[in-house]
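#lab-general

N.A. 3:47 PM
ok so I finally got the sequence cleaned up, no stray characters, all 211 residues accounted for. can someone with queue access submit it? mine expired

B.Y. 3:52 PM
send it over

N.A. 3:53 PM
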Amino acid sequence: MAAPRGVVDGLIHEALRVGRFNTELATLDDALREIINRRAQLEMLTAAGTSLSLWMTNTTGMGAVMANKSDREYPLLRDKDQFPTDAVIADALGAAFPAYQTFISKIAAPEYKLDCAWRFYNDGKAWLGKVARGKTTALWLSIWPGYFQAGFYFTEKTSAGIPSLNIADELKQDFQERKSVGKSKPLVIKVFNADGLPDLFTVITYKLSAK
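B.Y. 4:20 PM
back already:
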């Protein structure tokens, strides 16, 4: 007997929330496998901000998940064999590259002492930069067409300080509207030019000091 539609929708929604979109994710078993087998790695990609436009249809007994392909947005740096050198990133970012250079230079300064380590993640099929100080991860960096994106994770406790930060109201509102991933909630900042750096470094400073 088919499971209740509400249960199926909830499980499929959970699978999509924590990980990769899969056009074959149309059965209860598929949803469960996606939740159980991929959650840990794909939470990192959620923090990087993978964005999909989704809607549910009731064309089968178990329900179907479809995607508006024209609205999909994916990070760049998708060639596993091509390490993201400055030249590669400059080509992807275009006019945003000077802001990226400033960002990379500043995080390495004594004030922050952060390193950016690039790694290719097979599930998301893209390179992500882990920006960290020792064992403390500050943010996840991804490269998109014309901008770079920083994804932070905040626990329920550390989330309490976000509304008082001196950052754009739009960022605060977006943070409040995002759903938690496990025990943390992501805050995502897109940087198109140098104007986006002050908010980014305000959040980095808070992230490193938050307990």
